[in-house]
Amino acid sequence: MARPGLLALLLLLALPGQPSSLPQLDTSQGKASMADLILSALERATLFLQERLPGVNLDAVVGFQVLEEQLRGVQDKWAPDPLLRPLGLRAGQLAAKLTALLRQAVVYLQQTDPTYLREFQPSLQPGFWKLPHSWTRTNASLVYAWLDPHDSFSEDSSDLCLVQLLGTGTDHSQPCTLSDFCRALMTKAGCSGYSLSHQLLFFLWARMKGCTQSLFRQSQLYIGIFCANMMALNQRAQAAGYTYPTQDLFMENIMFCGIAGFSDFYKLRWLEAILSWQKQQEGCFGNPDTKDQEAPSAPPPPQHPLRRVRRREKLFTDGCSCHSTATAVGALGGFLYFLAAHPLANDGPHPATLSPPSGR
Ligand SMILES: *[C@@H]1O[C@H](CO)[C@@H](O)[C@H](O)[C@H]1NC(C)=O
User: Fold this and answer.
1) Rounded to whole angstroms, how far apart are CA atoms 228 and 242?
2) Tens digit of pLDDT for each residue in 275-286?
3) What keywords are annotated for this sequence in UniProt (predicted)?
4) Tell me: the pLDDT tens digits for 70-99?
5) CA–centroid distance, residue 305 to ligand 1 (Å)
6) Rounded to an integer, what distance in angstroms lies between the CA atom of residue 220 and that of residue 224?
7) Residue 34 to residues 3, 25, 38, Cα–Cα distance (Å)
8) Ligand 1 centroid distance, CA of 195 (Å)
9) For ligand 1, atom 12, which residue shows the shortest CA distance?
């Protein structure tokens, strides 16, 4: 598929620090074609949300809430450019549609999953997800020399720590509370997979909540270590041909580390890969092998017995996954946000880090 504008633009994005060595390009045009592609995918994914609304789980709602913030973050940035203005308007319209849909989704969750809803309510609040205003890159020297083969911790343990952090547990403790158990779990070295991405999410949410005391004084250090390792895992996933179900984790890593401000997750090849995984008919993301099957395909067996509805696994019979769709829209929305925030290559000075820094 020929997408010269897209390719040219992402070549620019892939080579920060050396834009002046590249030929002059109509980057406004490049941005416009790429933004159009991403927005079209996100509009289709939003139709999926709309059609499945009573059945989507909390994960999906969180993912689309992140997307809404990302869309709000781009809608005004493109107003001054006549080529990009219509795309900014489209982003604004999609954000407005999501506001209404997510409000409805919460009403359904109040019936289907009230406990999770209460525990994770803060992550659904407008303004909870603070998007980066400055960017950095992962540092490969922070990648673990070895991985702990017994690293996997259950979603329940992870949830317990997140709930403590948010202060939404039944014990009415303050936000930013940290038990010894969670301190050990969330700083454990050598983790990979979902354990690693949940360690990152923990420190990311600590940042969103404004936790700055004790362990959280070192949040940025841990965020740097975890995203360096998530980058290494994503590169391995790419080398292995993104076999399912790795795609889900791959997109989660881009979503979370992108929100953490690591711009090197926004790679052309990765964007193209994600766009190619969207089910054209349904607009969702999920199991690529399930095509119009009658029988519901079983989700991958959980590694741990769980006492509640598993947030991470809600698979519709057509292979649409709530979790994968959530991570996909969070990742794609991140690409869009980065695209809007990044200065054009021929716009004058090219600071490696954009200003102004956020209020961290
Ligand atoms: C990467 O991390 C190493 C080890 O902490 C450090 O010595 C080095 O300065 C870092 N590099 C960059 C570019 O930050």
Assistant:
1) 19
2) 999 999 999 999
3) Signal
4) 999 999 899 888 989 999 999 999 999 999
5) 40
6) 6
7) 9, 14, 6
8) 24
9) 139
